[in-house]
């Protein structure tokens, strides 16, 4: 399979403490890669390094078969992302926020704004100002902003945070739609095992900055009795139940 993101032995140290330790990952074109680990495991830091927001202390990252240098920016036009909590201009409307993002990305396709709002279930609220949005609506708008430019890759850090059960179900359906209808490659992080299991083709399990396992979901189901949650518990907690 064709890898669109290849991470080779990256590490990151802050003030002499290594927080990411020799992580290697392969994310294939057109797949959903579930990046799974407890809070604080290092998922966000790895995602920030892919986006060049944080520089690795060692190792290398290749995106679209090109090594990412400290000054690399051009490749980011082909990536949509949400890292941590999405931030907007609160006194502007949803549409205005998306328009600003499109201008920043030099993307000129105005109908794409309404299309993105509809895809994430925000049809009819484009004229509403962000300070009137609920937490769940802001999370949906963050997804709309990530996909409005029709990127080849989506990087989504805990995208179901703030969503109610209906919103989580709709997010799951959206991710599968983007993969199946548009061929979008998706890297999604979460600490909720069941949500990763419901959408992912491949899984990377990280704990305390170390990638414990990279495996295809179909191989877990074929080779190991039980669910992904059981497998996750075994790796992280040595058999103790994951809460």
Automatic annotation (TrEMBL):
- Give a yes or no for keyword Transport in this entry: yes
The record ties this protein, via Gene3D superfamilies, to:
P-loop containing nucleotide triphosphate hydrolases
Its organism's taxonomic lineage begins at: Bacteria, Bacillati, Bacillota, Bacilli, Bacillales
Which CDD domains does this entry report, sorted A to Z?
ABC_BcrA_bacitracin_resist (cd03268)
Q: Which domain of life is it from?
A: Bacteria
**Domain ABC transporter, first and last residues per copy:** 5-233
Keywords attached to this Swiss-Prot or TrEMBL record, sorted alphabetically, are: ATP-binding, Nucleotide-binding, Transport
Q: What is this protein called?
A: ABC-2 type transport system ATP-binding protein
| Annotated family | Belongs to the ABC transporter superfamily.
For this protein, the record's InterPro entries field holds: AAA+_ATPase, ABC_transporter-like_ATP-bd, ABC_transporter-like_CS, P-loop_NTPase
Pfam families referenced in this protein's UniProt entry, alphabetically? ABC_tran (PF00005)
| Native source organism of the sequence | Paenibacillus lactis
For this UniProt entry, the molecular function terms from Gene Ontology, in alphabetical order, are:
ATP binding
């Amino acid at each position: 399979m064709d890898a669109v993101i290849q991470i080779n032995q990256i590490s990151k140290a802050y003030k002499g403490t290594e927080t990411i330790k020799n992580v290697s990952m392969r994310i294939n074109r057109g797949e959903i890669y579930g990046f799974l680990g407890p809070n604080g495991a290092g998922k966000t830091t790895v995602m920030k390094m892919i986006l060049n927001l944080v520089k690795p202390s060692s190792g290398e990252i290749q995106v679209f078969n090109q090594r990412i240098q400290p000054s690399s920016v051009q490749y980011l036009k082909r990536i949509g992302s949400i890292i941590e909590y999405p931030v907007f201009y609160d006194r502007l409307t949803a549409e205005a926020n998306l328009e600003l993002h499109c201008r920043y990305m030099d993307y000129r396709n105005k109908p794409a704004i309404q299309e993105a709002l509809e895809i994430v279930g925000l049809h009819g609220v484009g004229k509403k100002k962000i300070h009137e949005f609920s937490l769940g609506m802001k999370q949906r708008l963050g997804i709309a902003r990530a996909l409005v430019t029709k990127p080849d890759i989506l990087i989504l850090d805990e995208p179901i945070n703030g969503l109610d059960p209906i919103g989580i179900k709709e997010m799951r359906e959206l991710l599968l739609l983007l993969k199946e209808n548009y061929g979008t490659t998706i890297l999604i992080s979460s600490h909720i095992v069941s949500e990763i299991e419901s959408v992912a083709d491949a899984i990377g399990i990280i704990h305390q900055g170390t990638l414990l396992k990279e495996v295809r979901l179909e191989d877990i189901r074929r080779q190991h009795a039980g669910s992904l949650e059981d497998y996750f518990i075994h790796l992280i907690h040595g058999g103790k139940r994951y809460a």
